[in-house]
Amino acid sequence: MTEATPYCTPWSLHIESDGTEDYAVVRDADGHVLAESSTFWLPQPGDPTPTALAAIRLMAVAPRLLEALHYLLAETVDMDLKYGIGLSEGEEEAREIALSAIAAAAG
């Protein structure tokens, strides 16, 4: 299920350093900077992940998550609806939440 999108994917995450602190950069498929995090120190094993790093990791995979959500809907509940199979209350609610998230991503 690969459709053209305006997102210039795939996006990549790059950890960079300014000499004293680390920061992360999300780049599109053409290498353009989409987002930069605030500075942080890379965690050592056992240390908690800095919020800035966790957030920018999520940003970097957002297009893949959006595509996965589209695919999941198409292959499950939307397929049921297509063939006249009713949805449970939980499935209906989950579908609405998913569609709302997709709409928010589309702007």
**Strand share of the residues?**
5-15%
Give the helix level as a range of percent.
40-55%
Distance between the termini: 21 Å
Order of helices and strands: EEEHHH
Mean pLDDT across the residues is 93
Oligomer: single chain
Task: Say how many strands there are.
Answer: 3
Strand order of the largest sheet: 1-2-3
Structural class, by secondary structure, is: alpha+beta
- How would you sum up the major sheet? 3 strands, antiparallel
Q: Low-confidence spans: pLDDT under 50, at least 5 residues?
A: none
Rg (CA only): 18 Å
Characterization of the model:
With 107 residues, the chain is of the alpha+beta class. It has a domain at 1-61. Helices cover 46% and strands 15% of the residues. It has a three-stranded antiparallel beta sheet, with helices on one face. Helix 1 (51-75) packs across helix 3. The longest helix is centred in the middle third of the chain and has 25 residues, at 51-75. The chain is elongated and about 60 Å long. The model has no long low-confidence stretch (mean pLDDT 93).
What's the SSE blueprint?
Layout: E1 12-17, E2 22-27, E3 33-36, H1 51-75, H2 77-82, H3 89-106
Antiparallel strand pairs: 1-2, 2-3
Condensed summary:
The protein has 107 residues and is α+β, with helices and mostly antiparallel strands.
Structural features:
about 110 residues; 3 helices
